[in-house]
Amino acid sequence: MIEEKIKIVTFRDSKESFLSLLDENNFLFIEQVPHPGVVMATGEIVEILKAVGAASIFPSLAAVAVQWLKARSSRKLMLQTKDKQIVHLEGYSVQEVAELLKQAESLTVIDTKSNKAN
User: For 55-101, where are the E strands, in sequence order?
Assistant: First the structure.
């Protein structure tokens, strides 16, 4: 049986929009908050637990990922497989992303432009 739990690493301008979309799609997730005084060399980490009412998280998470990615050209998604291969998810279909997520250890969510108007 495939373990259906994925670590998502978000960076500054991607966190709010991606987590909001997860919430809208009934995902349960836990934000891992660092202990005070601990320096982390990464973005903020969220662990996806499950999609409420879904038999598998992969198709639903793939749909969310592709929807989020297509909303702005400044967005990037990078999947790291359990054997440490990196896959950039731009241009993949929902079905292809769902299959890749089955092999995923983590998903990095990046928006290269700020959500705030300058």
Answer: 75-81, 86-88
**Contact between residue 49 and residue 5 where contact means Cβ atoms under 8 Å apart:** yes
Q: What's the CA angle centered on 100, arms 98 and 101, to 5 degrees?
A: 65
**Beta strand 6-10 pairing with 104-111:** parallel
In the chain, the amino acid numbered 26 is: N
Q: Looking at residue 48, what DSSP letter applies?
A: E
With 0-12 CB in 10 A as exposed, 13-18 as middle and 19+ as buried, what is 110?
middle
Q: What is the pLDDT of residues 75-91, one digit of tens each?
A: 999 999 999 999 999 99
Residue of 22, 13, 71 lying closest to 47 (CA atoms): 22
The residue ranges of every structural domain in the chain are 6-111
Q: How far apart, in whole angstroms, are the C-alpha atoms of residue 107 and residue 9?
A: 6
| Amino acid occupying residue 61 | L
Whether the CB-CB separation of 111 and 74 falls below 8 Å is answered with yes
In this predicted model, what pLDDT tens digit does every residue of 3-29 receive, in sequence order?
567 889 998 789 899 999 999 998 888
